[in-house]
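ok so i was messing around last nite and threw this chain in just to see what happens. nothing serious, just curious
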Amino acid sequence: MTALVLCWLLPLVLVWRVGELGSPAGAAAPVAQLPALVRVAHVAPGAPPIEVFVDGQLAAQGLPFGEVSGYLPVSPGVRALTARTDDAAADALLVEAEITLAPGGLYTVLVLAVTPGEPLLVLEDVLTGPPDAAQVRFVHASPNAPPVDVAVPGLPPLFANVAFRTVTPHVEIQPGTITVEALATGTTQPVTDIPSIHLMPGGSYTLVAIGLVGAAPPPGILTLAGS
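result:
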């Protein structure tokens, strides 16, 4: 399963000063904080489409497995995130958790819902990479898959021994269309297919391993651009 999400975001930065009318004499005029921007990816195996709320504000609705929402502006600070299956059943709740957002921050929240203690992964996104290269990182979000090595065939691994819930740093890579393989660490056994990926100069990408080995939904890659 592969979903390619191209999200080139040029957020509008609004900084304004509050007028002095009604302020105590000599008091500094406060400056408004920039909102954070948050998007949500459904990577909880076996869960039907979900709806997600951040502090009661709808962030995603009818989001199917292996897909990602658009960015939503959210006030910075500690925020309550709730994810439910997209129905009215009493057991529809998947996740209740808190996330901490910095002013002006850019985030992708992966809804895992594997156990109560591991419901989310929060990624800090980067919109662009180096001007003459691309950059890529890898996230292991397949709960029953072994640790993996991720490499361009015939070359040393880009990422080695990546375990479940691990988010690697970005690495620079030559732009163009590449093929990448994810192998069980230290073996030639493929864990999931990663289709050809087109990397633009200056692009920043995240490859997320999702699904289940030997079960449904099968293993796949969610490719996020601008992350």
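not much to say yet. Residues 1-23 have pLDDT under 50 and may be disordered.
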